[in-house]
Design goal:
The chain is mainly β. It is 0% helix and 53% strand. The protein has strands at 5-7, 20-24, 27-29, 31-34, 37-44, 48-54, 61-64, 72-75, 78-83, 87-93, 96-106, 120-123, 128-135, 141-144, 149-157, 160-166, 169-171, 187-190, 193-198, 201-203, 210-213, 216-221, 224-226, 237-238, 241-246, 249-252, 257-261, 275-281, 284-287, 294-300, 304-318, 327-333, 338-349, 355-361, 374-385, 393-396, 406-412, 415-416, 429-432, 434-440.
Length: 443
């Protein structure tokens, strides 16, 4: 076996792609089929060549994120890609984003637990483990071997020091079945402390992918979430603190990462605390037909949401939502929260079919508070639209019984398709009930 790459032995029950085959370092990797594209997931130790065989005619192949600077060499129906490091790629042919090949290269595993270790729920490779629910208790680890598939809801409530890891998959429902299983939230973490999630993939969640409510000290890394159902939010962070999401890939129909404070559903009793210390970094996101890519709101049922940072992320696509509430980067303050000190650093946008930026204080269908909140001290630094159309943006405060003005929003180094806007007009931005919206060059 090659020392540079590892193919995962996915169970035969998972449907294979009719569109693509892939070899990494001369090892064939199983390519899975889904309604939203094909998936090749494997481990990568060192740079290695990938060869993709395409089963349909095409003219142009594009590899995203464009920031990786990778290209293909073509020989008939075969494409060769020099995969330089672990990470996430989308191979798109002739602009068809409905049938991409998602190439998910995992970094090497570290500290694999023993299947016989105390407190380890260990799921072996090569089969589907069908259960109703897996519940984690304090100190426990859920481990999925590369090629293992767990079809179950994973839950943890009011526990600490738990881990979900491995290179296997949590599957939202039985392959080929379109109805909902017994659960709607695939991974449900409520009131937990000291949580680690690393390396796993979640596929076809029938609703919310990974709900994090009222949790503290959460670290989510190298996690891949791919779904296409209504309300399939990727990682909703609800009234949680000191949370890091890093080096993840999320492709969802609804919001990729929404940050909220809410009392809806599973959030009751845990979802009304202030939010602070959230970091979303080094990740690749694809928001399809609904929602927003990186969202704060709409539910903001707390006093304050602050110290939130989005950094070094690639937005591959942000689809057209059609109801005036979707954007790549959004803050929708529908309740009383004081939302402040939010920073967007080095965000690259490749296809914004709806708004680029949408900041609003508003009364929405989700609003519970009578009082409207605030938005202030927001920094957009080196946000760049590098491909696709020139998107519009909106910044709008609230006009009602006591105006709520959005204040002190700074755009530093904003670049839209090579245009460096000097004001809101050049940025194709609507600004209403605002004060202190500033544009300045990159530092």
């Amino acid at each position: 076996m090659s020392s540079r790459a590892v193919a995962y032995p996915w169970p035969a029950e998972l449907p294979r792609s009719p569109d693509y085959r892939l070899w990494i370092d001369n090892i064939e990797v199983p390519v899975l089929h889904t309604p939203v594209g094909s998936i090749a997931s494997f481990g990568l130790q060192d740079p290695a060549p990938a060869v993709v065989e395409v089963a349909r005619p095409f003219q142009v192949a594009v590899l995203r994120p464009l920031s990786r600077g990778l290209s293909c060499t073509r020989d008939g129906a075969r494409l060769t890609i020099s995969v330089d490091k672990p990470g996430y790629l989308s191979l798109e042919l002739d602009g068809d984003i409905g049938r991409p090949l998602l190439i998910l290269a995992d970094p090497p595993e570290r500290d694999r637990p023993s299947p016989r270790a105390e407190g380890v729920k260990y799921f072996a490779a090569g089969r589907i483990h069908a259960l109703d629910r897996v519940t984690l208790r304090s100190g426990e680890t859920l481990y999925l071997e590369p090629g293992a598939v767990l079809m179950a809801q994973v839950t943890a409530q009011d526990v600490r020091d738990i881990t979900m890891c491995g290179r296997g998959m949590i599957l939202g429902r039985e392959p080929g079945v379109t109805g909902r299983p017994a659960w709607r939230i695939t991974t449900d973490l409520v009131g937990c402390q000291d949580v680690t999630v690393d390396g796993i993939m979640q596929l076809d969640s029938p609703g919310c992918n990974m709900l994090v409510v009222g949790c503290e000290r959460v670290k989510i890394t190298n996690t891949k979430l791919i779904a296409w159902s209504p309300s399939d939010d990727g990682i909703p962070l609800v009234s949680s603190r000191d949370v890091s999401v890093a080096a993840c890939f999320i492709r969802t129909k609804d919001d990729c990462i929404p940050i909220k404070a809410s009392d809806r559903g599973r959030c009751q009793g845990k979802g009304l605390r202030d939010v602070r210390g959230i970091s979303i970094v080094n990740s690749v996101l694809w928001n399809a037909e609904w929602g927003n890519a990186l969202e704060i709101g709409f539910e903001t049922l707390c006093d304050a949401m602050s110290d939130i940072r989005f950094s070094n992320c690639d937005i591959l696509h942000c689809g057209f939502e059609g109801h005036e509430s979707g954007a790549v980067l959004s803050i929708h303050n529908g309740d009383r929260a004081d939302i402040h000190h939010v920073r967007y650093d080095d965000i690259r946008v490749e296809d914004a079919q709806q708004k680029l930026i949408d900041l609003k204080i508003l009364h929405s269908q989700y609003t519970k508070d009578d009082k409207r909140g605030r938005i202030h001290d927001i920094l957009f630094r080196n946000v760049r639209v590098v491909d696709g159309p020139f998107p519009v943006s909106i910044i709008r405060g609230h006009h009602g019984s006591g105006d709520q003005v959005i204040r002190d929003v700074t755009f530093e180094g904003l670049d839209i398709l090579g245009t460096l806007p000097r004001d809101w007009r050049e940025a194709r931005m609507v600004t209403e009930i605002t004060a202190g919206v500033r544009f300045c060059p990159a530092a």
